[in-house]
Write the structure tokens for this entry.
Amino acid sequence: MTMSGQNSNIAPPIAFIGFGEAAGAFVEGWRSVGPISVTAFDIKTNNAQTRDGKLADYVNFAVTPANNAVDVVKDAKMVFSAVTAEAAVDAARSVATALKPGMIYLDINSCAPSRKREAAEIVTNAGASYVDVAVMAPVYPTRHKTPLLMGGPGVKIAEDLLKNMEMKFEVVSDKVGDASTIKMIRSVMIKGIEALVSESIVAAVQEGIDDKIIQSLDVTFPGMDWEKRAGYMLERMVRHGKRRAEEMREVAKTMDDLGIGGIMASATATREQLVSDLDLMDAFDGSPPEDHKILANAILAAHKEQK
């Protein structure tokens, strides 16, 4: 069964506010299932330094570019908000005048539940249906089958559509914020371990004792394969440190909102940001290896240059 009603598309017209890695991965995945119509707008097209790269992304993923946020959603039925965590509410606000009943707004941003609730109020006041979506794993290589948690008033409508698009998801509740709460609290551990690996393994490489540290970790935590894990986690920080730092600031806000305090989350955000600020992607031609020694030495060298 197709959900478009008029043609063979696997979904009604889709719009993306923000078109980065997650958006591209989803579009690639959907096209492996069947035809779709996608329009996109990313604020980077308004910046002279990033405009050409973003326009190239639209071409590469065969999506139709829009001139602004309002234009991108006006003819859509499914709207995916895929901006930075701190911009989630602004993104909802930027399209509010174009939202209307019958539209589904899927907020896939990694931000605090309180921020999701703020965005949801804007969307529902405009008449559209809001869905709180938490992306629970890297979007590559699984693309549209990346595990998602969902909640919110629009979740019942979204279920059938996403099933037809062969997406992998679990409905948490009909309350905005429940899905995001799970992701935020989980990230204290997941991204926190990354930060610990960065601080420990980079120091170990500097002192020439990383093999001994990794051997000790393998004894204490058997089955974790710390050499492979360290390389992977450092690669994630080099590639996505800025985005991860933004997410961890949202995690810290979540923990503060819960009355727990975001001490560890804030420290993790600081470590992620420190690695991001080294701008190492160009040094690896955009493809950093999952090798802890190579990455640690690059981090150490960049630190020395900054001093």
